[in-house]
Specification:
Layout lengths: L4 H22 L2 H6 L9 H7 L2 H7 L19 E5 L5 E4 L3 E2 L7 E2 L8 E6 L6 E6 L5 E6 L9 E4 L4 E5 L1
Antiparallel strand pairs: 1-2, 1-9, 3-4, 4-8, 5-6, 6-7, 7-8
């Protein structure tokens, strides 16, 4: 049976995307991070045993939670936000703000060594991925549309964080 123009176009686009996916994945932050050694190292089995399914998907597989699904987006108490994987202190409530995006947002980390960054090409163009400096767990991304004094928005998955009240 012959393929019509619409089906042929869909097939060609799908084939091109399938061919490019490994190339784009090869440029992703996950591989760059995989080559870096972090102070907190565990096997995949250890991470799976320690983390919930949602935490594992975000922290170890660089997933993204649904917007407006995290209770930490509305957290307004004083305290610290720590990595749900290793407990590293990442962000202070003093640097948290409501970005309106549906994810906990901060204009800077708690200190210069708390987080690391890598370039993420997962969706076809470069973004700045932010990860825990101690365990390498994926936290979210950094964008240049934040408030003063930094102009940065650390858009963080709430599942990747635990909150410790002051």
């Amino acid at each position: 049976m012959p393929i019509g123009p619409t089906h042929r176009r869909t097939f060609l686009i799908g084939t091109a995307f399938a061919a490019l996916t490994p190339l784009l994945a090869g440029c992703g932050a996950s591989e760059a991070k995989a080559k870096k050694t972090f102070p907190v190292r565990k096997t995949d089995a250890q991470w799976r045993k320690q983390l919930t399914a949602a935490e594992y998907r975000i922290l170890r597989e660089a997933g993204t939670e649904r917007a407006f699904s995290s209770p930490l987006d509305g957290e307004k108490r004083k305290g610290a936000f720590v990595c749900a994987g290793c407990g590293n202190r990442l962000y202070s409530s003093a640097h948290k703000y409501d970005s309106g995006t549906g994810w906990p947002s901060f204009y800077k980390p708690i200190d210069a060594g708390a987080v690391g960054t890598a370039t993420d090409y997962k969706i076809g163009y470069p973004r700045t991925e932010v990860h825990c400096a101690d365990c390498g767990g994926h936290l979210g991304h950094i964008f240049g549309d934040g408030p003063k004094p930094t102009g940065k928005r650390h858009c963080i998955n709430g599942v990747a964080l635990d909150f410790i009240p002051a």
